[in-house]
Amino acid sequence: MAESSITAHDSAEFKPFVWNPLQGLDHKERRYALFLNDARDVVQGAHTLMELLAWDEDRRDEARSSNGPAPLLSAADRASLQRLAIASLGMLHTEIEGQCEEVGKAH
Length: 107
Known about the structure:
The protein is mainly α.
């Protein structure tokens, strides 16, 4: 019984989604594909997060003006999610800058 629990746990290990297949790529192509995979996830996540924050802000405004539904997020939650978006996009920007510098050096 313990053995099957270990096997089930091992097979449930998290693996990030891969938008671009990596098989058969040389080192440079693989690095670029990995970057695109990460960039796509960060951008989609930031987009979804900003939509959520805008939706919650609309609820907050509606609640103030007409006793509408209460906002979903507290001020602390909103600030935390905003910092997450800023940090994620900042890391993506740093990676893009690094790749731009590499391209500049190659030419």
